[in-house]
């Protein structure tokens, strides 16, 4: 069995903690994007009726910035296609 110094142990623990923190942050970002997509989907359905599969897929693959942009447009767009124009 290899000898592990206290410095190596501290470095290993620090690396593990940093990895856990990065994992939590990534999980939060993914959760926020999923939440935004779900809310936008609900708003779109209420405004325009059932969504085509292509739109549902697009929402699932969108960046948070795209979702925010579309979310703002849903309030003024006359059609479903108008929500997604230019993006």
How does this structure look, described?
This protein has 87 residues and is mainly alpha-helical. It has one domain. It is 77% helix and 0% strand. It contains four helices and no strands. α1 runs parallel beside α3. The relative contact order is 0.10.
How many strand elements? 0
Q: Per the principal axes of the C-alpha atoms, what is the gross shape?
A: rod-shaped
Q: Label the structural class.
A: mainly alpha
Series of secondary-structure elements, N-terminal to C-terminal: HHHH
- Tally of contiguous helical segments: 4
Oligomeric state: single chain
Q: What is the CA-atom radius of gyration, in angstroms? A: 21 Å
* Main β-sheet description: none
Stretches where pLDDT falls below 50 for ≥5 residues?
none
Strand content: under 5%
Distance between the termini: 58 Å
Average pLDDT for all residues: 87
Number of domains: 1
Helix proportion: over 70%
Short note summarizing the structure:
With about 90 residues, this protein is an all-alpha fold.
Show the helix and strand layout.
Layout lengths: L5 H43 L4 H9 L2 H10 L6 H5 L3
Descriptive labels:
single chain; 87 residues; mainly alpha; 4 helices; rod-shaped; DUF4351
């Amino acid at each position: 069995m290899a000898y592990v110094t206290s410095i190596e142990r501290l470095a290993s623990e620090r690396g593990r903690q940093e990895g856990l923190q990065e994992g939590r942050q990534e999980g939060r970002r993914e959760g926020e994007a999923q939440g935004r997509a779900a809310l936008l989907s609900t708003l779109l359905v209420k405004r325009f009726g059932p969504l085509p599969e292509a739109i549902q897929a697009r929402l699932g693959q969108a960046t948070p910035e795209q979702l925010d942009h579309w979310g703002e447009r849903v309030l003024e767009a006359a059609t479903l296609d108008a929500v997604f124009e230019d993006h």
